[in-house]
Amino acid sequence: MKSVIKFVVVDDEESCLNNVKDIIREVTFNLEEEVKIETFTKYSKKLEKEINNVSERKIYILDIQLDDKFSGIQVAEMIRSVDWESEIIFMTYHDKMFETVYRKVYEVFSFIEKFHDFRERLKKDLKTILKKNCDNKLFVYQSRNVDLKIYLKNILYIYRDKEERKVVIVTDNNKFTVGLGVQEILEFLDSSFAVVHRACIVNKTRVQKYHWTDKYFVLDTGEEVNMLSKKYKKEVLCGNEC
Amino acid sequence: MVMSVEFVLYSLATSVCYFCTNWIYGILSKQKFKLNLPIIILIFLMGTLNTYINMHFSVSIKIVYNLICYCTLTKLIYKDDIKTWLFYSLLIWSAGSMLDMLFMSAISALLFFVLDSMPTIAIPFITLLLQVVYNFLFRIKFVQNWINKLKEKIEKIPNIGWIYFIVIILLVLFSTLAFNNMKNLTNEIMILFLVLIAISISVHLIHSIYSEKIYNEALKNLLNNNLYYVDLNSKNRIFKHNIIHKLDGVKTVANDKVKKLVNDIIKEYNLSSLPNKEIDNLPNGINGLICQKIYSNKSKKLNFAINNYLKSDLFEILTPKNYNKLCETLGICLDNAINASLKTKDKVLQIVILENDDNIFIKIINTFKSEIEIDNLGTLNYTTKREGHGLGLYSIFMKKGVKIKTSIINNLFENQLIIKKRKVKA
Questions:
Q1: Of A17, A117, A169, B14, which has the fewest CB atoms closer than 10 Å, so is most exposed?
Q2: Closest chain B residue by Cα to residue A83
Q3: Residue A21 in contact with residue A36, Cβ under 8 Å?
Q4: Which chain A residues have a beta carbon less than 8 Å from that of B367?
Q5: pLDDT value, residue A10
Q6: Interface predicted TM-score of the whole assembly (ipTM), two decimals
């Protein structure tokens, strides 16, 4: 069965909707996956249903200024309240005032200005998203007071702290300590992760080099981690090749 | 020989009891019951000593000893704040006492009826059976849900810590006296208990009335402060508008060096102001608070945005008490969010204000860079800052009237405050 990629375009101008549809068709022409395009001119029950259906991989292309009581920002808010795996692209005029905020808060892929090289920018961004190959899976953990959600791609490595006897998840910017064991945490992860030491799991996609003899690995951030055991070499290398 | 077998059986049964009560604590507080060798040894030692005390000392000493053992074990195994710990302990103790009494009476009656007497050796087995029933009871989903609801309601009572403390003291005293000398429980002792309870309730009531008075004063000050900051911000905007125009005038007659200097000054003034549209958009009542917090940090290049979808006036839709609590909670959350976001590269802070028919929702979202212990976040004295902090988020979680949901999503920290709207009579 073919996998599906759905494009959801929201813009109050029909001409713009058609233009975006043309660009999507052009970019996805050679794609193996089945492509579906849904268009909306404003927020509606149907769009709400579409947002709440998180079973499909989606790429949202939203106009910020909608001629409606709901703006594109509110639509993005609704999307992110249920779905952190789909991509969002905003179409906007020249107002870049809050771009930094919204880019971060709603994990927006890009802001494309409507009257400045729009066609080429959108084509380029769509191609980049399609190449990324659906890697927006989340690690979800709940404690009594906090819900933690992290993209698996953002996790660098996970290790067991000997003194605290807890597991530490190291991401690009932060460290999170959770009350799980190394083996327990493996159940939350996908095949891009591998045990490289009895107290360490690494995101293989983020490793630059394994130094098996010196017992350390180097991450794409430049960090060197001294937790590598030859015992796991076969599994890690086999996992990479398989 | 019989005596030693009895001793071993008693010791084992008591150790299993300690084990079970701590296990139940873990089930109730949704924490993992992690055992290690030192704890297991400690449990068996405590169980053995308990049996010795049981055989050679009075019941009152046994009760106090049990209380000490239980406290030590739960504190060693779990890291809960004192109120949570007291709540679950009280619940386990009360339910345990009641079940113990019922079970012992029923089985003694049965054994007495069948065997004409209750063999001492049967007691450890009855105790073990009781623990199985006890464990089963607290594993039922319905019971767990009920306990969670009870905990939420009890936590909303003011000064609950003191009430817990008084109830525990009374419970231990009463159990000791009742078990030790049931027949000689005189009217004087009963009156003493009643007086103690009456004093506790009176102290609590006086404290509540006094707090209400102070709270009304605080609310008045808060409203005045809010108006002051809104007014100050308006004056500030007018002042900036005028001064920038005057500086523009200076530029027309200035040389290149002065022009550059003037441009820098204008740039600095523009940075440290909030966009007018944003301020006008803020709901009346918290606009002053937000302006005050954001304004002082805008110059530090804080990337700030606010999305307000609240149409109603806060004073109309919130009770004065809830408004006061909202301001306090929002202040703490904003301070935390600003401090955290300023330490990051992007320095992002967003506030989203929404409403539905029953509640107001305020989301405070910020970037952060730190090391966080997820299981300890929001507990007493836990902080990602330096020592001496760690009360802010804890006090918010403990606050009644304002519910808080905290999430961390991809390096963004989000606190969602949920405040109940005032019920409007039809």
A1: A117
A2: B409
A3: no
A4: 104
A5: 92
A6: 0.71
